[in-house]
Amino acid sequence: DIAMTQSPDSLTVSLGERATISCKSSQSVFFTTNNKDHLAWYQQKPGQPPKLLIYWASTRYSGVPDRFSGSGSGTDFTLTISSLQAEDVAVYYCQQYFHTPFTFGPGTRVDIK
Amino acid sequence: QVQLVQSGAEVKTPGASVRVSCKTSGYGFTGYYMHWVRQAPGQGLEWMGWISPREATNYAPTFQGRVTMTRDTSISTAYLEMNSLKSDDTAVYYCAIQLGTSWYLDHWGRGTLVIVSS
After folding, report:
1. Cβ–Cβ < 8 Å for B32, B99
2. What is the least distance, in Å, from the CA of B21 to any CA of chain A?
């Protein structure tokens, strides 16, 4: 199985400041056939299901604000919230969909300072 | 719009079985995979497997032999059945679909809480 790790476990950021979350996979999730990284990011607020933010490591899903961006390739990825808003308080998960079993990172909790 | 409506909470005793349903609307049910993901209280997300439009299944090794995923095209509903329940199967079980071009999950049900307790 591909193991996913995230850091930090939690972070506290002031409103309007940048939040950066790291995700690493135990093996590359870059698929040479389609030249894409099979990595997604999800946001989960308390009592709600996860919501897709980013796929192909850097493509924003429909309706996701442009303050959310994804980057990285191979085994190292980053989710950046460029200017944290109150509604961004949540837990963020990365997920590899390169190979089954699809696996999620342990999550990073983002709070307001 | 796309909707995935899951069945209500369940309380089961250890060793019992549970079946969770996911009724869908707003998209072509017959054309898409259905995934199941669970989340234990206060914990992260765990992918359980998928069922294809043609009813092929792919289960995570952790659940192989204990989980059965099925679908009923006539009522656009998918089912997750799990047997030999243990206390650490207590979790919220989500159904989710991928309408996009790959395995990222773009629509989710609201989840079904399954409590396993004696």
Report:
1. yes
2. 16
Best to test chain A binding among B34, B48, B64, B102 (most A CBs inside 10 Å): B102
Structure confidence at residue B30 as a pLDDT band (50, 70, 90): confident
Query: Min CA distance, A61 vs chain B (Å)?
Result: 8
**Is residue B80 within 8 Å of B93, Cβ to Cβ?**
yes
Over residues B78-100, the mean pLDDT reads: 97
Question: For the stretch B12-48, what's the b/e string if a residue is b when 16 or more beta carbons lie within 10 angstroms of its beta carbon?
Answer: beeeeebebbbbbeebebeebbbbbbbbeeeebbbbb
d(CA A91, CA A5): 14
The DSSP annotation for A55-109 comes to: ETTTEEPTT--TTEEEEEETTEEEEEESS--GGG-EEEEEEE-SSSSPEE---EE
Distance CA B13, CA A104 (A): 29
Token pair, residue B37, equals 């993901």
Question: Looking at chain A, which residue has its C-alpha nearest residue B41?
Answer: A47
How far apart CA A81 and CA A68 sit, in angstroms, is 5
pLDDT value, residue B101: 85
| Chain B: residue whose CA lies nearest to A57 | B104
